[in-house]
Amino acid sequence: MSGADWLSYSLQDFVMFGPQVFLRLFVRINQDLWPWQLLAVVAAFGIPALFLSQGERARRLAVGLMALAWATSGYGFLVGYFGPINWPATWFGWAFVAQGALLAVAALSGRVPGSRLPVGKFAVLWLLAVSGLPWLAMADSGQWEAVALFGIAPGTTAAAGALVVALIPGPWRWFYLPLLVLWSLFCAAISWVLQTWWLLVTPIATLLLAGAGLWLSPRPARSPD
Amino acid sequence: MANRITRRKFLISSGLAGIALKSPVLFASTPGASSSSPIMRRIPGTDESIPAIGMGTWITFNVGGDTQLVQQRTRVLKTFFDLGGTVVDGSPMYGSAADVMGEALNSLNAHDRIFAATKIWTGDESETRQEAARSSRRWGVERLDLLQVHNLLGWQGHLETLKEMKANGEVRYIGITTSHGRRHREFAQIMEREPLDFVQLTYNVLDREVEDRLLPLARERGIGVIVNRPFQGGSLFRRFQSEPLPDWAGDVGVSNWAEFFLKYIISHPAVTCAIPATSKVEHMKENMGALYGRLPDAAQRKQMADYVRSL
To answer: Is residue B43 part of a domain?
Structure first.
């Protein structure tokens, strides 16, 4: 196809499903997983507690749980539920799994947010993400079963995860951020086409939280000279 | 005075309308055609006729593994068949729609009621047969009735293979598609020199570019025409549903906007079939209402187009 042909396509032409089908993905995965998503809720509130404990082992465990959340939401929601109606979602699903693997490497090798992390601010932002964003899918669908939990729904997972990966010390954090940007653009495009306006908040929150993570990230100590 | 029968009001009276459709006496019709029998169109160059209203599956049947929605779409398909439809159009591009159609056909045991039309959608021109076989498996039909090259993607290679497949009896009809008015010049060139059974293109009361060249060419070349996007992706309803139908709507066999839009299309002498898509049983009933009753003549078609433009 020529460039002019491509220009004749609209965003709508690439979204092959309707809002009802999309929002029911959240309902379906929650119904299928029940009651195991309660573990995800425990993890969502346990991660800031682990960071607050200040020990390196606890912080490694927190990043390990984060890694698991990326992988489960990617493989479970994106590959298993979203992929059959939207093939790019499958690619994102495997990218989430890869992101989880990278975070697991970070946890195992000790490249985790350090003890100088301002845990109070981190915890507030984290809790806002994992307790506020899940309700957006419900607001769009009108069904409480559509709650988009951290570790299950990729949007909430990526938004909260953005805060953590931006806090990974050193240049490693830049390995994690491209997926966040691409994912946010993908989510925003879908929400725009489907007119699921509440869910449009999630990709915006993802980018804001990534920015907040970079802002909270402790600066390297200055050399005495 | 304007006739204020809206899409919503039509739903309320759809039960009565269904009964009425069973009674030829209640429906005066164009001479020589009974209102109780569906409007059929002959496939050019054959003795076979197909109903002038079919159905598309873009977006509407892409519901993945959602059992509840698969069952609901099965009811939509059942309504389509019950009201006389046969032509169903899909594409490998439409996500899980082919699998959902296969499940619905299995549930209804309706493989012998369908005119299965799908597309070849791959840039790899050596993949034609494999993709057709995959579609056939997904739909659960032994042989697809119509294979079309989707949006001219890799059309040279695919069309050569499709011609061979037709000659071997692997598919009954072959064609090409376009939508949204894309690549009409190249489309016409292919129509002029290739032995096509069908073309599929976008045509509706607002998108009428094909009236100038492609539709006359199809008649001249004896090519059947399947019309996609008859409601302009639903935007015709969004724009006009709140408007009243004209008070002469009954004269052109129209009692709601769905019939208005569809009868405008299928009354064009070059058009074989229009393929509206819907995910709702009620809307399917409205769409299939256009398969019955009288059709507008040329002067009335102009009146219909003028009326929409005036709103």
So the answer is: no
| Sheet with B224-228, edge to edge strand ranges | B55-56, B87-89, B115-120, B146-149, B173-177, B198-202, B224-228, B273-274
- CA of A189 vs chain B CAs: smallest distance (Å): 16
In a domain, B191, yes or no: yes
Confirm or reject contact between B59 and chain A (CB < 8 A).
yes
- Sort B161 into a burial class: Cβ within 10 Å, 0-12 / 13-18 / 19+: buried
For residue A200, CA distances in Å to A192, A205, B288 come to: 7, 9, 37
CB B60 to CB A8 under 8 A? Answer: no
**Interface contacts A/B by beta carbons within 8 Å:** 48
Tens of pLDDT, residue by residue over B138-170, are: 999 999 999 999 999 999 999 999 999 999 999
For chain B, the domain total comes to 1
Q: Which of B64, B93, B151 sits opposite A21 (nearest CB)?
A: B64
Confirm whether B265 is domain-assigned: yes
| Nearest alpha-carbon partner for B150 in B201, B191, B98 | B201
Q: What is the pLDDT of residues B98-135, one digit of tens each?
A: 999 999 999 999 999 999 999 999 999 999 999 999 99
Question: Is the separation of the CB atoms in B299 and B79 below 8 Å?
Answer: no
Task: Pick the closest to residue B272 from B207, B222, B210 (CA basis).
Answer: B222
**Other C-beta atoms lying within 10 Å of the C-beta of residue B234:** 14
CA pair distance B112, B237, nearest whole angstrom:
33
Q: Which domain holds residue B264?
A: 50-310
- Chain A residues 141-200 with CB within 8 Å of chain B: none
Q: B37 in a domain, yes or no?
A: no
CB contact under 8 A, B96 and A87: no
ipTM rounded to 2 decimals: 0.88
Smallest CA-to-CA distance from A152 within A22, A16, A27 is with: A27
Instruction: Report CB contact under 8 Å: A18, B69.
Output: no
Does the beta-carbon distance from A17 to B59 stay under 8 Å?
yes
The CATH number covering residue B144 comes to 3.20.20.100
Which residue type occupies B43? I
